[in-house]
Amino acid sequence: MDTAESSSTSKKIQVQRYKPDDNPEKHYLNEETGLWSWLTTVDHKKIGIMFLGAITFFFFVGGIMALLVRTELWTPAKTFIEANTYNQLFTLHGAIMIFLFLVPSVPAALGNFILPLQLGAKDVAFPRLNLLSFYLYLTGAGIAIFSILNGGIDTGWTFYTPYSSTTGGAVTTMVFGVFVIGFSSILTGVNFITTIHKMRAPGLTWDKLPLFCWGLYATSIIQILATPVLAITLALVGMERILGIGIFDPAMGGDPVLFQHFFWFYSHPAVYIMIVPGFGVVSEIITTFSRKHIFGYWAIALSSLAIAFIGFLVWGHHMFVSGQASLASMVFSFLTFLVGIPTGIKMFNWTATLYKGSIDLKSPLLYIFGFFFLFLVGGLTGIVLGSIALDVHLHDTYYVVAHFHFVMVGGMVMAFLAGLHYWWPKITGRMYNETMAKIACGIIFVGFNVTFLPQFVMGSQGMPRRYFNYIEQFQPFHQVSTIGSFILGLGFLMVFYYLVKSLFGGQKATANPWGSRAMEWQINTRPPLHNFHHIPVIINGPYDYHKPMEEFQLGLAESPTDGHGQESDLEVTSDGKEINAE
Amino acid sequence: MDAIKDFFLPPAKSTLAEQTDALFWFVHGSSLILTIGLIAVIVYFVYKYRRKSEDEVTPLITHNNALEVTWSVIPLVLVLIVFGWGYQVFMNQTVVPDDAYEVNVTAQKWIWQFQYENGAQSTGKLHVPADRPVKLIMSSKDVIHSFFVPDYRLKQDVVPGRYTEMWFNAPEPGESIIFCTEYCGDGHSDMLGEVIVHEEEEFENWLAENAGGGSKPEDLAPEEWGEQLAQEWACTTCHSTDGSQMTGPTWQGKFGSEQNFEDGSTVTVDENYLRESILEPNAKIVEGYPAVMNTYQGQLNDEQINAIIEYIKTLK
Predict the structure, then answer these.
(1) Nearest residue of B to residue A356 by CA position?
(2) The domain B101-209 belongs to what CATH superfamily?
(3) In terms of CA atoms, which chain A residue is nearest residue B68?
(4) What sign for the dihedral angle of Cα A266, A315, A398, B37?
(5) With contacts defined as CB-CB under 8 Å, which chain B residues touch A300?
C-alpha cells in the first residue's frame, strides 16, 4: 500500500492509494437498470448520456437540413425546392444547430458526465435540477418541432424584427420553444457554478482545478447572465405578435434596431457559450497526449474568464451597418479586437505545451489539431470582420457564413468530437476503432475545408447570405461547397458508425487508457454509480506529468456513517496545500 | 497579382474601394503568415517530440512570463493597427462630402426605388453621374433591407421608420450590381438592382428626360409601356408572365379567368379587380398564395396602372 503525506503545519493525515479497476462487475450502467431508472435518474452521468443522445439526434436533423440547403444551391435558380421551403430550411438549420446542439453540446453532455468526476464529487450540486434541465431541453425541443410542423418559420435564426413580427408561420411558438430551452441552459449554468464552488474534493484548490472545469465555469457565468436577456427579448417578440404591443415594429411605434441590440447582447456571448467549453477540452487533451504539464495554466484559465467578460461588451460588431452611431461602432470594434487577444494567448500556450512533450498522435489529439487549424482560420477572419471598414463590405455575405462555420463547426464541433473520442472509453467502457477514427477525422477535415473555404472567396466577391437564387458568377464556388458538404456529412456518419459499433463488441477499455493524470481517469471504467468508493484527496495538479501515477490515486476511506465524503470532517486550509484533520 | 485580386475581390469602382482593399490584403497577408508560422511550429513539435517509448517523462515547464507578454503584446499591437486603419477608412466611408448629389432610396419587398431632385423616378436602376460624390438617403417601407454594392465595398441597412445614409464616388461610367443583404423574405434573393454611372452630361440628359416622372413615353403603345413598368417596378419578381410558379400568381391567362380566394369567394378577373390588387393587395388573397404584396398606392399613377393592366390583358 502506498502512502503519501502532506507536509503540514497542523495535524498530518495519511492517505491511501486506491487503484482503479478495469471493468468492474458493478458500474453506473448496471446498478440500476430499466427505462424508468433512466427517466428518473439524478445521476449526472446518465443525464449526460441522455443529453448526448438528444444532441446527436438534433445534430443529424440540422445536418440533413444543411445538406438540403446546399443541394438547392447547386444551380443559380430553383433546383428542387421552393424559395419559402429553402428559407425555412436555413432558419431551422441555424436554430437547431445553435439552440439544440451547440449550446448544450459540451457543457450539458460531456460537462455533465466529466465535471463531477474531475472535481472528485459524487454528483453535481443539484442533481434534480440537472434532470429538470434535461426535461426543459426536451420540452423546448418538442415545442420547436411542433412549430416546424405547424407552419414553420422563415425568419432566420436571428428572428430580426420587423420581419419576424409580421411574417406568417409559427414564429411565436418557435420563440417560446427557444425561451424554454434557454432555461435549461440557465439551470445547467447555476448547477455547474455551485458544483465547482462547493463540491471540490479535499485538496482540490483553484490552482489545481482542471482547465476543462475553468472553461465550464466561464461558460456557466455567461449562460446565467446572458440567457435571461434572450428570454426577455423573445418574450417581447411574442408580445408584439400576440398583443400588438409596439416594441420593435416601427409600424406600431417600435424600434427594429433595438431588437438587434437585445438579440446580440445574448447571441454574441452565446458564441462564447459554445466555444469556451471547447477550449477546456483542448487543454485536457493536449496535456494528456503530450504527457506534459500545461504551459501557462493561469494564462489559459484566466483568459477564459476574460473572454467571458469582454464577450459581453462586443455585441455591436454585428451591427456596423445597421445604422447605429459611428461612435458606437468604433467602441465595439475596439473591444472586439481586445477579445481576440485572450483567444490568441490560449493558442500560443497550447502550442508551447507541446514543446518537449511526449506526443502520441491518437485520434482525440488529431481532432484537436483539426480544431487548431480551423479555429485559427475562424479566429483570424474574425479579426477581418472586426475591422469596421472591412465589415462594411463583408457583412451578411458568405464570408460571414464561412467565418462562423469555421469557429462553430471547425472549432466547436472538432473540439466536441475530440472530447467525445477522449472520454468515450470512460463513458462507455469500450474502445472505438482507432484507424477508422483517424480516417474519419481526415475526411471531416477535408470535407469541411472544401465546403467552407470557397465561401470566403464568394463572400469577398459579394455573394450575400440567405440567397435562394444567385447570379451565375458564383455557381462554381457553390458547387464545390456543395460537394464538400457531402464529404463532411459522410465523415460525420462514419464517426457515428464506428462509435455505435464500439458499443457492441468494441474492445474493453481500461481505467486509464491514455495514461492521464486527471482525476476522471483515476476511477473505474465504467465508473461506479456514485463515482468514488473513497474520498479522493488531491495533492498534485491534474497536469503534473512529471510525478508518478501513484500520487494521483489517493484518498481516504469513506466513513461508513456518512455517504457524502466531502462533507466529513476534512477541510482544506487557505493556502491550499495542507490537509487538516480536526 | 492581378489574377489573385480578381479571384478574391470584385472590381474596385469607387474612390474608396482601393482603401478597403489595401486593408483587406494587409489583414489577410499577416493572418496567412501567422497561420503558416503556427502550424509549422506545431507540425515540427509533433514530429520532434513524438512519443518514442511509453516510459518517457517530460520536463516540468509551467510558464514563462516573458513569452506570455511577448505573445500578448505583439498581437495586441497588430490588432490595434487593424482597428485604427479600419476606423480611418470607415470614417472616410461615413463622412459625406458637402457637394454630394442627393438621391432618395426607398426599399420595399422586393424592389429598390430611387427618387431624384427634379421628380424623376427610377426602379431597380440607380442613375448617377460619374466622378461626383453621390449621397443616398434611404428608408424602407416594410422590413429591414440592406443596400450593398460589392464594386464600391459599401453596404448600409435600410430601416423602416428612419433614414440611413451612404455615399460613394464612382469615377468611371459603368454598371455595378446592387444586392439586398438583409434577409427580407421569399423574394430576398431577387431584390437586385443596378447602379448605372453616366458621364455628367449624359446623366443630365437622362434626368431631364425623366423629369416629373411617371408619364408615358410618346413612342410606346400602352401595353409596351406596361411591360416596361412591370419590369421596372419588379412586378415580375413575383408574378411570372409565362405561367411558371413564383411567389405570386402568374399573369398568364389571368385576365378574364376565375380567381379563387382564401375566404372561399371567387371573382372574374377584370380591370377593377386588377386595379384593386395593385392598390389594395390584401383586400382579396388568392388561394394558395401568401399575403406578402405591398400596396402601390401613391407610387403608380392611374396612367401607369392602366398601362400595366393593358399589358396583363395581352398575356393570354
Answers:
(1) B49
(2) Cupredoxins -  blue copper proteins (2.60.40.420)
(3) A345
(4) negative
(5) none
